[in-house]
Design brief:
alpha+beta; 3 helices; 5 strands
């Protein structure tokens, strides 16, 4: 089986997310999970940027057409988008795929803390 791109990083991110969900459960606002996850990333030795303005690119344009805040960019390689909803919907998947394309990144994780069990999707462009 082929290695997954940035598998070592995404495994640590997912592990940290399970740790947060195990401790907090569901029912909190997204920002609470974001703060706890930032602490867990530090514990796992992951470098990350949280809520930083990311440039949005369009097609072949070299200049960005705007910015948007990503929940996390981990190790400069993996986009992490958090949700605290009962169930992930197609619109959430579309959102992270659009972010990956607009940010010109390849790998993203969509992580949902809002359901009884942690759910996540790994997306690759």
């Amino acid at each position: 089986m082929a290695d997954l791109k940035y598998e070592d990083i995404t495994k640590k991110i997912i592990g940290a997310s399970f740790e947060v969900h195990k401790f907090l459960g569901n029912g909190f606002q997204e920002v609470i999970y974001q703060r706890a996850l930032a602490w867990e990333f530090g514990q796992a030795g992951l470098s990350y940027a949280r809520e930083i303005e990311q440039d949005i690119f369009y097609k072949e344009l070299q200049e960005p057409i705007g910015t948007r805040r990503a929940d996390f960019v981990v190790e400069g390689k993996v986009l992490v988008e958090l949700k605290a909803v009962i169930q992930l919907e197609d619109v959430h998947l579309a959102q992270i795929l659009n972010y990956l394309k607009a940010y010109r990144m390849e790998v993203g994780l969509l992580i949902n803390f809002g359901s009884k069990s942690l759910t996540f999707k790994r997306l690759v462009l």
